[in-house]
Amino acid sequence: MSSFTHPPKHLVREYLERRKRAAGPPPSPEEIRRQLGWAMMMPQVKLPAARN
């Protein structure tokens, strides 16, 4: 079983504050992971394709 490392709480709080002030729709989950630096910590797992 893989263990996942989550971004530190302070980074998530800072991200949420920035998102609150940002205009437009929320980014994709992949973009959120990239912005928080979580993508680098995740094992190579295939994510399901986004629905249109």
TrEMBL record:
This is Uncharacterized protein. It comes from Massilia soli.
